[in-house]
């Protein structure tokens, strides 16, 4: 089991801070994230199966590609990269995988005319509100990719602990 913590901060009109803990167990990925929006703390703990893990990795590759292109071309656009099913970790541990208990996660890229971007990983949870993780820098995207590939975001750590 490998656990890695990734902290992400972003300042909009209010203070928003997200912290993501990634745990890799075999072919499963568990994401536990806490978002603090104007002192309203939300916590999600989800499980991605093998196909969702592959879809997420491919989506991050595409997001890096688009982020680099948008730095040059500076276009405003929104595109859904992909969507897949995820489950609450507690429910997964109790029932195993169940389509009935799963939720849709949508990965959407938003490019802006100043060359910046937002990548939103949103869990659709009707009839309740949706929760999401937002990444808005190339470094965050690349660090998240490294973590999903079982690497540290610090190359020195990977070199020491091979």
Q: What's the arrangement of secondary structure elements?
A:
Blueprint: E1 2-11, E2 15-25, E3 28-37, E4 40-48, H1 50-73, E5 77-88, H2 89-95, E6 103-111, E7 117-124, E8 131-135, H3 138-148, H4 155-160
Antiparallel strand pairs: 1-2, 2-3, 3-4, 4-5, 5-6, 6-7, 7-8
Helix pairs in contact: 1-3
Radius of gyration of CA atoms, rounded to a whole number = 16 Å
The average pLDDT score comes to 83
Q: Predict the CATH topology.
A: Secreted effector protein pipB2 fold
**CATH architecture heading:** 2-Layer Sandwich
Q: Could you estimate the helical fraction of the residues in percent?
A: 25-40%
| Unreliable stretches covering 5 or more consecutive residues | 4-17
What class do helices, strands and sheet pairing give? alpha+beta
Helical stretch tally: 4
Count of discrete domains = 1
First and last CA, distance? 15 Å
The first-level CATH class name: Alpha Beta
| Order of strands in the sheet with most strands | 1-2-3-4-5-6-7-8
- The tally of beta strands, per DSSP, is 8
- The best one-word shape is globular
Describe the structure in brief:
This protein is an alpha+beta fold and 162 residues long.
Structure write-up:
The protein is of the alpha+beta class and 162 residues long. It has one domain: Secreted effector protein pipB2 fold (2-Layer Sandwich), CATH 3.30.2450. Helices cover 30% and strands 46% of the residues. It has an eight-stranded antiparallel sheet, with helices on both faces. Strand 2 (15-25) and strand 3 (28-37) form a beta hairpin. Helix 1 (50-73) packs antiparallel against helix 3. The two termini are 15 Å apart. Mean pLDDT is 83; it is low at 4-17.
């Amino acid at each position: 089991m490998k656990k890695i913590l990734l902290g992400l901060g972003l300042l909009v009109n209010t203070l928003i801070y997200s912290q993501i803990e990634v745990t890799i167990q075999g072919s499963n990925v568990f994401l536990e994230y806490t978002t603090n929006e104007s002192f309203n703390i939300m916590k999600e703990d989800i499980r991605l199966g093998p196909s969702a893990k592959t879809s997420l990795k491919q989506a991050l590759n595409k997001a890096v590609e688009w982020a680099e292109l948008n730095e040059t071309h500076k276009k405003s656009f929104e595109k859904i990269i992909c969507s897949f099913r995820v489950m609450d970790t507690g429910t997964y541990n109790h029932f195993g995988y169940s389509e009935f208990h799963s939720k849709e996660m949508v990965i959407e890229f938003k490019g802006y005319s100043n060359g910046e971007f937002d990548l939103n990983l949103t869990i659709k949870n009707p009839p309740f509100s949706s929760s999401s993780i937002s990444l808005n820098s190339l470094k965050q995207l690349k660090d998240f990719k490294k973590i999903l590939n079982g690497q540290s975001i610090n190359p020195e750590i990977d070199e020491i602990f091979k």
